[in-house]
Design goal:
The protein is built from twelve helices and six strands. Helix 2 runs antiparallel to helix 3. The N and C termini lie far apart (60 Å). 30% of the residues are buried. By secondary structure, the protein is α+β, with helices and mostly antiparallel strands.
């Protein structure tokens, strides 16, 4: 009998920790095996800790240990990990407090009850959580963290200050019961909020891609019109050239060659999104007097989502244009090279910058006035690279910035 109870307890603790670890991994990435073990330990501790009213000894150390495990083991920004960690912790603490103080299952029923709860939580998160590798701006994560303070604050208040409810009639325990249930079900609202914000961010990116494509096709129409007009006027141009003396002919020819139809390239490769972004950014560079040296060897359509392609090319060029815009005109030059060969998409961009000495990757930030609304370019690129199991390297030395990234293609994409 004692052995059966021990095995039942062991099964309960192991499965509880595993299920909670799966919940966290649906919301945060954890790649290496040692980090997964650390996260599993934190989840096991969180899921199986007994929480009674005014239980300072178990409550505070457990929540700190769990958050430390999440911060160390998982990928993403600190705000993101802290927000998700508090969301999960408040939910599990609410459930444990309800069971230990009101339901009181401490035999085989606690195993079934806890497995049903964590299993339902895992299935719900897996079904409704955003795609892996999602990211929001620091401003959005601060907002979500502020919203998360409410349920974790409720649980903390009820647990740490709840001794006065002991020894009372069941009817007098209604308030802490309702508060814990509110904290428990607030997880649904918070998860929904994260999903909606991610969807809104993705919609904004798709609108950006649509606008870029629209500008691209309008540019194509304008260029086609210029070509038709040039063909129509070619006889007049040839007649004028024949009548001009030798020294004036050269000037006339040079004026013709400066027309956008000769100077502005719209088709760089076989991918229409790349063509659209490069065409639009090259127009911006012309206005700012920035030389653009581009070499794109992409013989087929890139096998990535349009939003991801736009995020990579658009952000690397935006950052380069922003850096060059602060320099004297003779130094303004951007070199971009991209290719897709042998199952790899690679991109390299370099441009002069105002930085001195050597700068680390994490030290780069926007120089725009409102940093809350800007500075997400490199983060967006990193997100795309991470989602596609690629790699990115950044370096800045003696006034020259360079960024290199590569994304592997799947077997179907090669």
């Amino acid at each position: 009998m004692e052995i059966e109870r021990f095995l039942l307890s062991l099964l309960s603790t192991v499965l509880s920790g595993f299920l909670l670890e799966r919940v966290v991994e649906c919301l945060l990435e954890c790649r290496s095996c040692p980090k997964k073990i650390l996260l599993l330990f934190g989840c096991w501790l969180q899921a199986n800790m007994v929480i009674y009213f005014q239980d300072w000894i178990n409550f505070i150390p457990t929540i700190f240990a769990f958050l430390i495990c999440v911060l160390v083991a998982c990928e993403g920004s600190v705000l993101k990990k802290l927000t998700i960690g508090l969301m999960v912790a408040s939910t599990v603490f609410s459930f444990n407090s309800l069971n230990d103080n009101f339901i009181g299952f401490h035999d085989w029923r606690v195993v079934l009850f806890k497995m049903l709860f964590l299993g339902a939580m895992f299935l719900g998160v897996r079904q409704f959580a955003p795609e892996r590798g999602y990211e929001l701006s620091a401003r959005m994560w601060r907002l979500l963290l502020l919203l998360t303070v409410t349920p974790i604050g409720i649980v903390s208040s009820v647990v740490l200050l709840g001794k006065r409810y002991w020894g009372m009639e069941d009817g007098e325990k209604l308030l802490p019961l309702v508060l814990l249930l509110l904290a428990l079900f607030s997880f649904i609202g918070l998860l929904w909020t994260v999903t909606v914000l991610i969807g809104q961010q993705r919609l904004e990116w798709e609108n950006t891609v649509a606008k870029i494509n629209q500008n691209y096709y309008e540019s194509i129409e304008r260029q086609n019109f210029e070509i038709r007009r040039l063909k129509h006027d070619m006889a007049n141009h040839l007649t004028a050239l024949a009548a001009l003396p030798g020294e004036q002919k050269d000037g006339y020819i040079q004026e013709l060659l400066k027309k956008p139809v000769f100077t502005h390239t719209l088709r760089y490769c076989q991918d229409p999104v790349v063509n659209a972004v490069l065409s639009m950014k090259e127009s911006v560079m012309e206005q700012k007097g920035i030389q653009f040296q581009v070499k794109v060897d992409i013989p087929a359509k890139l096998p990535f989502e349009k939003v991801e392609i736009c995020a990579i090319f658009g952000n690397v060029l935006d950052n380069a244009i922003e850096a060059c815009d602060k320099l004297s005109e003779e130094r303004r030059k951007i070199c971009l090279e991209a290719r897709m060969r042998r199952g790899i998409f690679a991109l390299n961009i370099s441009n002069p910058c105002s930085c001195l000495g050597v700068k680390k990757q994490e030290e780069f930030e926007t120089t725009k006035k409102n940093k809350e609304l800007h500075g997400f370019g490199l983060k967006s690129i990193q997100e795309v690279v991470r989602n596609n199991q690629g790699n990115m390297e950044i370096s800045a030395k003696d006034g020259q910035f360079s960024l290199f990234l590569y994304l592997p293609l799947s077997k179907e994409q090669k």
